[in-house]
Amino acid sequence: MSKSDAKSQLLAILDRFEDLNADISVLAQREINALARKCPPESFGEIAQKVEHLIELYQETPTARVGKAILKEYFAALEHSARQLAAAGEITTLPKDPNLRSFSTALVLYSTPDYGALDHCKILNRAEIPEPLSNAADSFRRRIEVVDTVFGIGFEALWNLDPAQFEEWTANYLDAHQGNLAPDVIRDLLRVLTTARSLSPRIIAWLVTWCGDSALLEYWPLVTRFSDRILGRIALRGWARQVGRPRTLSLAHLKLMVEGERMDDERMLAWLTNTLQNFGEGVERFIQLDRNVSQDEEAWVNTALRSELHALATTYVPILMLADHLLGQPDGAAKLAMAFLGIIGKGLNEWEEQINELAQKIIRRAFLYDLKEGRTPVETIRKFTFGDQVAFTLICNELDLVSQQFDSVAQREVVVRKLAIFYASYRRAPMLGMEVARRYRHLARILHEDFLRQHLSDAEYAQIQGEDFLHELSSMASLAKRFLDHRRALEMTVEEMVASEMEFVAETRARRLKYIRRYLE
């Protein structure tokens, strides 16, 4: 087949897509891509015009126009609620930042950056939006996330025709339609660009903007997710070139995966989960160094301090660059926060065992005290099952049916272990709060300049201080403690708890973007 024949066939296929039916088989998609690879590079402009025509046809369909109208009405209702709450003094509008603006104005018409996280939660919670309108808006947003488009097929064909020209065309298209970009167009563009090993600075600038756009993160998370993945992979390639020979097994494994282009979501999440546990255990060992040492122990404490600091510093950046994989998981933000305080993996399991042992001691003492006061074990069991009738009945079956007493000390220990689960669960939240506060105090003390200068030489301290790691770890630990405190506090409203998580996620993503920019240069 000649190049001109391939071009003619590809144009004919794109003409048939004017019915906007994107339901084609995988085999048909492969055939289209094969035709695109056979087309001459000079035919790119003509084929790109056909793809742009498909975009215009799609945006003029009743589905797209009605969807935009629905979202416009939905965001207008949110804006109206925000003005009412601001007038009542319940929320405060933030000062306008000329450098901060949303690039998702085509479908995100609500001024999210104008309000703090807590005020934003109040608006969403208290806005009186009719249920049919809310359902329609959610349905349209969901449709854009899951329904394929014909221009997505065209984007893939253009990429296979000439990747360099496709990048240039993409940058020109984004610049020409700035402020009027539909999220499904961005989604399909980014889906094609995920296979690129590097991108032009113009496209990189757009990706950085989308990663930092809080409106897109909330309303069109798929756009942010693709941007995160593309930037993360490019930054990891830069990290792998600069890191040299890693001195830890986890970093060596990550470099091997990056160099082998095995950076799919499952592998990256598995690496992050395992490495985060090691990082948390390292933080725990680091905290344990905060104690008075004798003169004989000072030498090994200094060596351990330098070793743990180096291990944490070298692992911190890759963890942060891959944090988006965890933040999108249920309870992922809490896991990340607890890792910065060393309460994860082995450290968390050991703490849970200590809580369970303490619960067993308390319940065993309660049985002895109640026996002394003349109360039966049934009363003690009822007290420690906290109103759970099923559990109360099952545990009482361990008693003698006639006397309602224990047959032996061993039988009492069986009941103690079962009741300890209930009591440990009841006491876990406040005791976890105390453990978080304790670990944060030790970590803050050991990261203080006075402590480090006692155990490090001036040259070693200057080197660590120059990497800015001490400030980073201290700041993240402080943010983690605040988030975990708010997450557990019973006196906090739901709005305040959700807002604290949003603030922690936003700060983590901002720090992640800072390191990504460093490795993009």
Sum up the overall morphology in one term: globular
Mind describing the biggest β-sheet? none
What's the tally of helices? 25
Terminal CA distance reads: 43 Å
Radius of gyration: 29 Å
Helix content: over 70%
Structural category: mainly alpha
How confident is the prediction overall: mean pLDDT?
Answer: 85
| Total number of beta strands | 0
Which regions have little confidence, pLDDT < 50, spanning 5+ residues? Answer: 100-106
Percent strand equals under 5%
Could you state the order of secondary-structure elements as H and E? HHHHHHHHHHHHHHHHHHHHHHHHH
Number of folding domains? 3
Question: What do these coordinates show?
Answer:
The chain is mostly helical and 521 residues long. It contains 25 helices and no strands.
How are the secondary structure elements laid out?
Blueprint (H helix, E strand, L loop, with lengths): L2 H14 L9 H13 L5 H16 L2 H26 L29 H10 L4 H16 L3 H12 L1 H14 L6 H11 L7 H11 L2 H6 L1 H22 L6 H11 L5 H24 L9 H24 L1 H5 L4 H8 L6 H27 L4 H8 L4 H8 L12 H38 L2 H7 L2 H9 L2 H20 L5 H27 L1
Helix pairs in contact: 1-2, 1-3, 2-7, 3-7, 4-5, 4-6, 5-25, 7-8, 7-9, 9-12, 10-12, 12-13, 12-25, 14-15, 14-21, 17-24, 18-21, 21-24, 24-25
Tag the structure with descriptive keywords.
3 domains; 521 residues; mainly alpha; 0% strand; single chain
Short description:
The protein has 521 residues and is mostly helical.
